[in-house]
Design a protein that fits this description.
Elements: H1 11-39, E1 49-53, E2 55-78, E3 83-88, E4 95-96, E5 101-105, H2 108-171, H3 177-237, E6 240-242, E7 247-249, E8 259-260, E9 269-286, H4 290-299, E10 303-308, E11 315-322, E12 332-339, E13 351-366, E14 380-384, E15 387-393
Antiparallel strand pairs: 1-15, 2-9, 2-13, 3-5, 3-8, 4-7, 5-6, 7-9, 9-12, 10-11, 10-13, 11-12, 14-15
Helix pairs in contact: 2-3
Length: 396
């Protein structure tokens, strides 16, 4: 049966159509709200900024380099006397002062050497005393022979005078020949005695000269013995090894019980000591800066700041050395700066950023800059009261 035109729709069907339209409208509204929300931009977190005024001032001209920290003095402690190490008096990495006891080596062998040298010295000193006694005796003999010579010369002159007087009397026939011959024989006897005395004097003087040579030889032996005693005493002193400088010790290379050698190519290194107060920082600068550096060093102290690796605080020092030649391969010149290093922040072998400030430039514009974690600078220039200002965002 067909429905007639203009027939009335049932009330239940009309209600269903109205409910369907309401649901469709709700779905469309929900979709529209979602799209609207997605199109809204996300709100960014507030970024704090800092503002600084650009100002004109004198700025230092700086030379920057990478330097290497070097010990002011480095000492390799070696044994100068052979023997067994009895005791090590120092710990590794310990701060030591000049004269502090480091090692003790067995002294018994050198003790015996010293005792033997002292015994030889005592023996030779006795020989010197004996030689001097013989010399004194022979010098007295010389005095005696000279006195006898003088006596016999006087008697010989007197006998010769009498012989001449009696010779005149004999020529004039006033005395007998026997009487004259007696005085002549006496004069010749005294003359022979004088010649014998002169020979005795010469012999005694030769003996004295020989005795003097013997004394000098004995004294030379004594001096040699004294040198041997001193050498043995010095060698014995080497059995106690002391620090030659103020510094910090490194690794102990030979411990108690080891036998050390001295001299030659097989000598034993026991310890390394580095002096770190004061300390050097060695670095290179371009050769074009050399005239400026020399000029300012001649007029005063040239200040240097060094920032050791891992330490943000700089350490102040002074340039104390310029090398005597430019490195032809790199075109640089090596410099050394001395640092007091009272806090011990610089360490031998450490790298450090070095900033050398030879002089200051004329007036220039100083800007505030900021470096961010992402590696970019974001500086904005703004106008404030007719003056240029820099706005610098600072990220936490």
């Amino acid at each position: 049966m067909s429905r007639r035109r203009g027939a009335r729709v049932p009330e239940s069907a009309s209600h269903a159509w109205r409910l369907l339209l309401v649901l469709l409208a709700a779905v469309c509204a929900a979709c529209g709200d979602t799209k609207a929300e997605s199109k809204q931009p996300q709100r960014r977190a507030a970024v704090p900024v800092a503002v600084a005024v650009v100002e004109q001032k004198t700025m230092p001209l700086q030379i920057q380099a990478i330097g290497t920290v070097e010990a002011y003095t480095a000492v390799s402690v070696k044994a100068q006397a052979p023997g067994e190490i009895l005791r090590v008096h120092v710990k590794e990495g310990q701060d030591v002062r000049k004269g502090d006891l480091l090692f003790t080596i067995d002294p018994r062998l050198l003790d015996s050497t010293l005792a033997q040298a002292q015994a030889n010295l005592a023996k030779d000193m006795v020989q010197v005393q004996q030689a001097r006694a013989v010399l004194e005796r022979d010098q007295a003999r010389v005095v005696q022979t000279r006195a006898a010579l003088a006596r016999d010369e006087a008697q010989a002159r007197n006998a010769e005078t009498q012989a001449q007087r009696y010779a005149d009397l004999f020529k004039r026939g006033l005395i007998a020949r026997e009487q004259y011959d007696q005085f002549r024989a006496s004069a010749e006897a005294f003359a022979a005695t004088v010649r014998a005395d002169e020979a005795d004097v010469r012999s005694a003087e030769e003996t004295v000269r020989a005795d003097q040579a013997a004394v000098r030889a004995a004294e030379q032996l004594v001096r040699a013995d004294e040198a041997a005693v001193e050498n043995a005493r010095v060698q014995l002193g080497y059995t106690t090894i002391r620090s030659p400088i103020d510094g910090r010790t490194g690794s102990v290379m030979m411990t108690e019980g080891n036998v050390v050698r001295a001299g030659g190519t097989s000598d034993s290194t026991l310890l390394l000591i580095n002096q770190i107060r004061p300390i050097y920082v060695s670095f290179t600068v371009p050769q074009q800066q050399l005239p400026t550096i020399k000029r300012y060093m001649a007029s005063g102290r040239l200040q240097v700041a060094a920032v050791p690796a891992g330490d943000p605080r700089p350490v102040g020092g002074v340039v104390t050395f310029i090398d005597n030649a430019v490195d032809a391969a790199t075109g640089t010149i090596r410099l050394k700066a001395t640092f007091a290093n009272d806090e011990g922040r610089l360490w031998p072998g450490q790298f450090a950023n070095v900033t050398l400030t030879p002089h200051s430039a004329g007036p220039t514009w100083e800007n505030w800059t900021a470096r961010f974690r992402n590696g970019f600078d974001n500086i904005q220039r703004v106008a404030s009261g007719g003056r240029p200002r820099w706005v610098i965002p600072e990220l936490a």
